[in-house]
Write a structure and sequence with these properties.
mainly alpha, 4 helices, elongated, disordered N terminus
Length: about 120
């Protein structure tokens, strides 16, 4: 049975690993939310405050994706740099995670590798 408080805690935790498909999906949702909030009123203080948790969650998901490829979550700070963040996103979306457990834990699930037949 799924424990809601445990799921919520793990969602906000930078520990563990996130596979490519989950990373891409969450990134698209967070990007769409950010765009919608900023498009509505880009100068409002409330839109900036609402986007702060989205930024934090984006950094957490990026750190977990970096863990999946065997890198430190500190590399997620590169996502704060304009233009470089697009390159980092593409690298994380394309490269498969490490197979099996690594120092960040066991893999989350399938890495959507279509070459396995």
């Amino acid at each position: 049975m799924l424990n809601p408080s445990s799921s919520l805690h793990s969602f906000w935790s930078p520990r563990g690993r996130t596979n490519r498909l989950t990373y891409i999906g969450i990134s698209i949702v967070l990007g769409a939310l950010t765009f919608a909030i900023l498009f509505k009123n880009p100068l409002a203080v409330t839109s900036r405050l609402v986007n702060l948790p989205i930024l934090v969650l984006s950094m957490i998901v990026t750190a977990r994706r970096l863990h999946d490829i065997g890198r430190s979550g500190w590399w997620s700070l590169l996502m704060l740099l304009p233009m470089l963040n697009l390159l980092v996103f593409l690298v994380l979306a394309v490269f498969p995670g490490e197979t099996g457990s690594n120092k960040y834990g066991p893999p989350q699930g399938a890495n959507t590798d279509c070459s396995n037949g």
